[in-house]
């Protein structure tokens, strides 16, 4: 089972991905995590990637494709979640070619609700893991959580606009292909998890 999680920022897909990892044996693959792994490997690709990121430049399509191909090729688990991988045209081309049987889990949440959540969410500065509004301590590590500096209204609106203009059109194509399972993300964490389990037959 190869799943691609997608949804507006703040929809809770990261929380649900961790739930499936912990309770159903999935492997979680995140683009940011893949960047860090490849850089740490010291490979030619890692050195090139580090140079780009250190300069503050954006990773171009060619480099992004190389990272995606390496990440996909490295997976051995049959149950995989790819989080934040298919955000634009070239992302989709790679997945259609390398993993033609993948399924998209779309976490549907309104822009207004997403903004409310993002303005209040907390994160662990050590692990990078995010937590819902009101969470003060990481339940796993006991570390104090802080508010992300980039979770301000201006930054959030830019991220939402990018999602609307780049990711949503890809989602519409995937819907036409019959790849998409839609989840109501405007529920409690437990209710969302239950809906995912039911729709995936877990």
Characterize the structure shown.
By secondary structure, the chain is α/β, with parallel strands linked by helices. The protein has a domain at 2-12 and 106-197: 3-Layer(aba) Sandwich (Rossmann fold), CATH 3.40.50. It contains 8 helices and 8 strands; from the N terminus they run βαβαααβαβαβββαβα. The strands form 2 sheets. A 5-stranded parallel sheet has the order 2-3-1-4-8, sandwiched between helices. The protein has a 3-stranded antiparallel sheet with strand order 6-5-7, with no helix packed on it. A hairpin with a 6-residue loop joins strand 5 and strand 6. The radius of gyration is 17 Å and the shape is globular. The model has no long low-confidence stretch (mean pLDDT 85).
What gross morphology would you assign? Answer: globular
CATH topology of one domain: Rossmann fold
The CATH class of one domain is identified as: Alpha Beta
Element string (H = helix, E = strand) = EHEHHHEHEHEEEHEH
Estimated helix fraction: 40-55%
Distance between the termini: 11 Å
Give me the side-by-side strand order of the main sheet.
2-3-1-4-8
**Low-pLDDT residue spans:** none
**So, CATH architecture of one domain?**
3-Layer(aba) Sandwich
The gyration radius over C-alpha positions equals: 17 Å
> Considering the protein shown, what is the CATH homologous superfamily of one domain?
P-loop containing nucleotide triphosphate hydrolases
Structural class of the secondary elements?
alpha/beta
Q: Report the β-strand fraction as a percent range.
A: 15-25%
């Amino acid at each position: 089972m190869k799943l691609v999680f997608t949804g507006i920022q703040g929809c809770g897909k990261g929380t649900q991905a961790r739930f499936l990892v912990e309770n159903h044996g999935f492997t979680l693959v995140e683009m940011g995590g893949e960047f860090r792994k490849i850089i740490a490997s010291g490979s030619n690709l890692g050195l090139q990637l580090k140079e780009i990121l250190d300069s503050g430049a954006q990773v171009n399509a060619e480099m992004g494709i190389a990272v995606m191909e390496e990440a996909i090729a490295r997976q051995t688990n049959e149950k995989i979640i790819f989080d934040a991988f298919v955000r634009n045209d070239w992302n989709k081309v790679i997945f259609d070619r390398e993993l033609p049987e993948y399924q998209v889990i779309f976490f549907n949440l309104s822009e207004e609700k997403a903004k409310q959540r993002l303005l209040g969410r907390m994160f662990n500065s050590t692990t990078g893991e995010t937590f819902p509004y009101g969470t003060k301590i990481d339940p796993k590590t006991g570390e104090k959580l802080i508010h992300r500096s980039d979770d301000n209204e201006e930054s959030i609106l830019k991220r939402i606009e990018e999602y609307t203009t780049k990711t949503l059109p890809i989602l519409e194509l995937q819907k036409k292909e019959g790849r998409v399972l839609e989840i109501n993300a405007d529920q409690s964490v437990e209710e969302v998890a239950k809906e995912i389990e039911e729709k995936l037959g877990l």
